[in-house]
Amino acid sequence: MVLNTPVEQPSKETILSVLKAADRIRRHFTEILKPCGLTLQQFNVLRILRGAGPQGLPTLEVGERMIEKTPGVTRLLDRLEEKGLVSRERCHEDRRQQLCTRTQAALDLLAELDEPIVQGDRDTLANLTAQEENELKDLTSRILR
Amino acid sequence: MVLNTPVEQPSKETILSVLKAADRIRRHFTEILKPCGLTLQQFNVLRILRGAGPQGLPTLEVGERMIEKTPGVTRLLDRLEEKGLVSRERCHEDRRQQLCTRTQAALDLLAELDEPIVQGDRDTLANLTAQEENELKDLTSRILR
DNA sequence: TCTATTTCCTTGACAGATCAACTAGTGTTA
DNA sequence: TAACACTAGTTGATCTGTCAAGGAAATAGA
Fold it and tell me: For residue A10, what pLDDT is reported?
């Protein structure tokens, strides 16, 4: 998950700290989602599809919004379809595309999760002031750019 | 990899930014390691074992230093052993333990990687001043704590 | 209009993360 | 010393990430 601990250069420490923080964040939300039987990525897909509305999105579009390689998305969608949370059908204008839509069940599930997730957001940054939060956003956005 | 993009609360943006940065960092180092046929985690294990010296470390110890669940470590070590980079043998004092040691081949490989990795560290934070770097370390270390 | 290329997506294969269940030694204690 | 719990590690199953290869529809060019 994370680079190891032997620390010499200060940069290494900083990088390590960023990676560890991301790791804690991921675990935190994974924990929140576990009772619903959703993984973090599945949840992301559902939220993206909720945002897309009833007309749905083609597979690649979903992938792009997740910064994710396509093959993973296909199989992610496979599982969500099996669970009845997503439905897919060929697009008529462009028959290469598969339009993915969230089902009503997905909307219900997401609605249940909204509060816990917002709370999770709060908990994640509970130790930072609003200003520090902005600073953190700024600094991380400038990493490797 | 990352939470999706629909953004309402500022906390969400910050969290997203941290996750994305970690993602870029991970990809960056993965890229550096690819020519050597090592994954990031394999590299971590080898560095840990290099740090441990010739007497090696039991499997669980390796796992702890990686913030990693044990089962994963076992299989990680399996692959490294197949590649001839790690050797394992039962500990005589406590026959439950497997002592894992880096081989000479591993040391050679790591030596080759030291410079590229240090350069990778530099590149990662190239856009931050030393002070900003410290700030980033501080802020991330306070996330979810 | 027919081939060549591109685009969208799927499949296969393998590394890795995580959970649950299990084996094999160790230690403890009655 | 026999029974019990504990520790170290492995194995199996499922999900995800990534690469490489490929199919099928759309598009471009001759």
Answer: 80
pLDDT of A51 over the 60 cut: yes
Fold of B38-115: Arc Repressor Mutant, subunit A (1.10.10)
- Residues with Cβ within 8 Å of residue B119, at least 6 apart in sequence: none
Topology (CATH) of A10-116: Arc Repressor Mutant, subunit A (1.10.10)
User: What is the spatial distance, in angstroms and rounded to an integer, between the CA atom of B82 and the C1' atom of C24?
Assistant: 24
CA distance linking residue A30 with residue B3, whole number of Å: 11
**In this structure, are residues B47 and A2 in contact, taking their beta carbons and an 8 Å threshold?**
no
User: Which chain B residue's Cα is nearest to A48?
Assistant: B4
Instruction: List the 35-74 stretch of A: residues with Cβ below 8 A of B.
Output: 40-41, 44, 47-48, 51, 65-68
Checking if the pLDDT of B81 tops 80, the result is: yes
pLDDT, residue A2, reads 53
- Nearest residue for D15, CA–C1': A39
Is residue A39's beta carbon less than 7 angstroms from any atom in nucleic acid strand D? yes
Q: Residue A103: phi, psi to the nearest 5?
A: -90, 175
- Is B123 part of the contact surface with chain A (CB cutoff 8 Å)? yes
Question: For chain A, which residues make up each domain, given as ranges?
Answer: 10-116
